[in-house]
Protein 1
Amino acid sequence: MNLDQLHQLQPYLWSLPRQPGEERAEVLLYGSAPLLGSMDDKVLEQIANVACLPGLAGAAMTMPDAHWGYGFPIGGVAAFDAKQGGIISAGGVGFDISCGIRCLRSNLDVSEALPEFGRLADILFREIPAGVGEEGHLKLNPTQIDRVLHDGAHWAVQQGYGNAADLEYIEERGRMSGAATDNVSELAKKRQRGEMGTLGSGNHYLEVQWVEKIYDTAAASAFGLREGQIVISIHCGSRGLGHQIGTDYLVMLAKAATRLGIRLPNRELACAPIQSPEGQQYIGAMNAGINCALANRQILAHLTRVAFTQVYPQAELETLFDVSHNTCKVETHEVDGKSRLLHVHRKGATRAFGPGHPMLPERYREVGQPVVVGGSMGTGSYILAGNRANPAFSSASHGAGRALSRHQSLARWHGRQLVDELARQGILIRTRSMRGVAEEAPGAYKDVDLVAEVTEQAGLARRVAFLRPKVCVKG
Amino acid sequence: MAVTPGGLTKLGPIQLRAFVPLILPHSRAVKGADSDFASRSAGSTKVTIMNEPCLGNACIPVERECAMNEGSSMTTQPLPYFEHDADIGVIGRGPTLERAFEAAAQAVFAIITPLDAVQPQATVSIEFEEADSELALVIWLNLLLGKARELGMVFGRFHLQHQGNKWNGEASGEKWNESLERGVEVKGATLTMLSVEQAGAIWEARCVVDV
């Protein structure tokens, strides 16, 4: 991205000036010059298009890890006001509805766990269905699927996957309200019946990590984190059901936009007014998709516990938090001094409520929401905490963000060589897809340290802990 | 029986079968497919599971935009793709609109597994209605992805024809098994970089797929 076309407002905040005659809302980009400079121009094009959509409240924004996506850019944040003709966009949520990260903290120390990492990796790989074409241990009938879509992680706990204490530390307390199971197609439900409790593929993973560094001792204490501690991160989403909801509604919303006279700069933004029948239909289906993702990660958390106790009988794994980073949620935010009820799209962006927010669990109320920024399998991840004065509708980065395309990665790396090289570094990879490993090579991602640092410097969230990977099950 | 312009024998309102059936010893019905959706209608889309493979598609050789091979083990065909930061841009080209769509389907499924290894043991038939050829591409690819996931299959061969707004297609492949190399899951075809154009004698269809 050519920075000459931007106006620097603050050290880590930039705007895209409007051209004469250009009618759109403000575009704000959070990031440093090196991060923004490394982004594709398409990021700017996509977020500028988002700023043209009706009913936008405030600015359309990108996070420091933004990259070129479909519909909205990944790392895109935009809030819409239903009362002012605001829209809901399937392209602003993505196919993998409520893709996110479940983070578990353990009572284990890396030094005591280290000798058994090989066995742990093998058992996790056996217990966690991962990769394209893999089905889960569960086979659900249509009635059960509807319960999943209505009750989310609560359904999973009722079935014996995990415990009620987990629910407190999941966004929406584990159940998204407003799910309309009738708005989810039969095909979507059929796709999911064998996919509950599966990790998926692409950038999804289950990682066993250890806390290498604590940045914020007060927040770390509230999060139950200490240096040397084993932590597990599970990155996945709503699986086939969410993908099918996205599929079903993408074309429908594109047509609705045309029918309703919404002038789209690009058809990829497929959207409808929130208050339109199509908009309401999608929101109901999307909320069902969110519940599917919450239940899926709850099952995977349980399977992880089962695997751990086979290797470490003394292991206790508690849910630190479960964040979603592909959603649209109704939240109250202040815009231009007025409190407004908004539909906040976060496409590859994490909600980051600050201290005191009423939706946070009591344990985190004083320090803010845990924000998990997932890095590559060879580098590491960060846990941050939300800030009270977050200027981006309480949003922050969600990952390192890709620096190279999948094609570039395949041209540069071989999966087998990467697995061997990472093993030499003490990171054990288990995968069914060497192609997947090559596409997800550590070098294909931006510098996660820089992303986390800039996220903090931009005032979006503050660093709490750095996690170094030791075992990675790749989808 | 009437022979349609696409060379297929029309058997009924839903079923389509290759006019010259390619009989393979492994041909079989899809196991585990519910009888209630073996032949059913989902809106304007109808899907039929058949136990005979369709003809291999007529994808013409194309130049390599960029090959999505990991080492040399994934695809041996020079399928074309275009660059996208997080996902993958697929391109299908052919002498007709239908062949271009078939080639695009090949490009999508080659991300999932090497197509050379996929045996056409069962065939799925797909019908849909769409007037907009660009949206038709997205619908075609997403129906294929949806059926593949629903049935636990991977497809390797595709055939499509259309008349006006009506599109009739087939995909043949097999259930996932240990002999198939695992690539990367494709979540869906998007409206990003979506185009269907004719340049001279060649049709080209392209879009970004989410992986």
Protein 2
Amino acid sequence: MTAGYTSDALAARVAADLRDGWYVNLGLGMPTAVAAHVAPDIEVMFHSENGLMGIGAVAEPGQEDPDLCDAGKHYTTLRTGAAAFDSSMSFALVRGGHLDAAILGGLQVSAAGDLANWYVPGGQPGVGGAMDLVVGSPRVWVVMTHTDRAGRPKVVDTCGYPLTGRGVVDRVYTNLCVFDVVDGALVLTDLAPGVTTDDVRVATAAKFDTTGGTPWK
Amino acid sequence: MINKLAVDAVAATAGVRSGDSVAIGGFGRAGIPYNLIDAICERDVTDLHVISNNAGKDDDGIARLVREHRVRKLTCTFPGTAEFLKQYLAGEVELELVPQGTLAERLRAGGSGIAAFYTPTAAGTILAEGGLTARYGPDGEPARLLPAKETRVIDGREYVLEYPLKPDVALVKADRADRYGNLRFRLSARNFNPLAAMAARTAIAEVREADPEVVLDPDDIHLPGPFVARLVVVAPRLDSIFVERGGVRVGSWREAGA
């Protein structure tokens, strides 16, 4: 077995940092998997930027409601305490700082906490709500593979892809480790099982501090 | 007497002209005014500037407008269809890409008498600094780029100046209405619908239910009647709600509001 988190274990690792009472937006892709790993003894409400607070699991076949979809355009469900609203109020929640965290996928994160996650030039540009989420949320966490499909580092000195926001990322979770962005610099704060600091260094194209972190359990 | 009920979708949309800017509500398949869009497609209406979150999904709705080459320009947050990408790269359609919260607020401002507003969204990105291709030329090279936007530092933070959207027409979908044009939406089908209606000079709504003899409770109204010019009651689109995947029709229809 290779060292590091599987995608499921990575989602569980992120979910372990959620706190009781939080309102959280989960982006498309890897962040979506976090919802299934929330501890049963805490209450976390998930925001969907198309106008819902308190979404649950994707609807079972046959149980879909045509008026109820999530930001990924899948038919979804609501949990107790959910609310529905229009897109303007939805982004008032986002930009106004009323969520506790936004968890997004990433193409690249820079050492200074810049995020690129919406556009690979040459393809179809599509930004959705990502730029609003990164400026408004008090905690911006990125969940992504440590390297891309070609094996290139995604944690870099300077992002090559167009940015979603500058200096917005607070924490990066990858299959290898967790980085915090502290005062515009990366700090390695946790290693995945079986991964060494040198493994991280080889797979990362940015300097990071290894002294500031206490490995979490 | 106020009665905004039109006889059918064709009558309700008769005033929509080629060249109009048209804000269309909906997100995913929820809250899309499919019947109003189809009614427009039954006439020779082209050259539209469509304002919506997406370029459609599946084959109907805005995807139909795009496929039939009725769209000159799309203002949206996430086009998301192969057909739109093809037309964009071929220089057949112009793209104004806007962050989702900014799109919502530009529509709200357009309907609210707000001349402009500053938002922190997109500061420091190409959507504020300019440079994303708005239209490709026939040679496949960028022919026109989105321009840079004004910015201003307020309390030490950079903000981007955004202007309102004031489309000629809005096509929206609501759950219930009364003859006064009061609308009530349902769950995530609300999304951009009330904002699009507010922003437009003429807002046209298709609704699941509106009894000419019954009015909505004043406290149950999401969008008051003055924002709405006309409305039409439409049957649920049973066939279009759930698409086939791998030859199997996935899901079953449960009537909205049931």
